TrEMBL record:
Any Pfam family: DuOB
InterPro entries: DuOB_dom
Taxonomic superkingdom: Bacteria
Domain Dual OB-containing, first and last residues per copy: 6-97
Protein name according to UniProt: Dual OB-containing domain-containing protein
Organism: uncultured Chloroflexia bacterium
Length: 229
């Protein structure tokens, strides 16, 4: 199985475990660079994403992976199998703040409706014109949830927003929630806290949209709790 270097743009929860997604160095006429995502039929464990030094894969890392296309039908055409025994995740480098500032605007999806409306592929990178965060914790069920209501060009989520599966954003949102059961953070407050945001939207197994990655320049600080992803 050949190896390829992947700029990680999403580390996210999925049923049964975790997934990662990112862009390779291969050119793509629509997205700029070719997207890949780990197969949904082979969820990853957190230890699969642990480097030899004990730290975890983060968005902005460039990692070396052994990948092979699954040949999946639309929309999950980016799906690949990872051979983590032959090639455990290896960090090649990290994207500097300067390169992040140039990368995200240069690689915005030119046709996100192909993902969100037409479902011909399953991953896109957008810059929201508006974002509103909704964070909640149900003490009875123990369910923590964070969502983002977004508007980007002609695309708009409903007022309830789109669920965020990005484990680093979820960690940040937990700190914002604190001991409260429910918090909303409006666009102006998000902008003041984080600056411009870039969002990776992906389709789940049922082809419903999820937010798989949330990016800022410089990256926001978030510490993972391995027992509460």
């Amino acid at each position: 199985m050949p190896t390829t270097d992947v700029l990680v743009l999403a580390v996210a929860r999925q049923p049964g475990g975790l997934m990662i997604a990112g862009m390779t160095t291969e050119r793509d006429p629509v997205t700029g660079l070719r997207w890949v995502r780990s197969s949904m039929s082979a969820p990853l464990a957190l230890d699969d994403l642990r480097y030899a030094d004990g730290t975890f894969v983060r968005p902005g890392d460039v990692v070396r992976l052994a990948t092979e296309s699954t040949g999946s039908a639309a929309p999950h055409v980016e799906s690949v199998v990872l051979d983590l025994e032959a090639q455990p995740v290896e960090r090649v480098r990290q994207l500097s703040d300067e390169r992040r500032a140039g990368f995200f605007p240069a690689h915005l999806d030119t046709d996100p409706s192909a993902v969100i409306r037409e479902r011909t592929r399953s991953l896109c990178l957008i810059r929201p014109d508006y974002a509103h965060a909704i964070i909640s914790f149900d003490e009875e069920t123990g369910r923590f949830e964070t969502r983002l209501a977004l508007m980007s060009g002609k695309l708009r989520s409903n007022d309830e927003g789109i669920a965020v599966a990005d484990i680093y954003w979820r960690a940040l949102a937990r700190t914002w929630l604190g001991d409260e059961p429910y918090v909303e953070i409006d666009d102006a407050d998000l902008q003041a806290r984080l600056g411009d945001m870039y969002v990776v939207i992906g389709l789940n197994r049922k082809s419903n949209p999820l937010i798989l990655g949330v990016h800022t320049v410089p990256p926001y600080e978030a510490t993972l709790d391995e027992d509460a992803l």
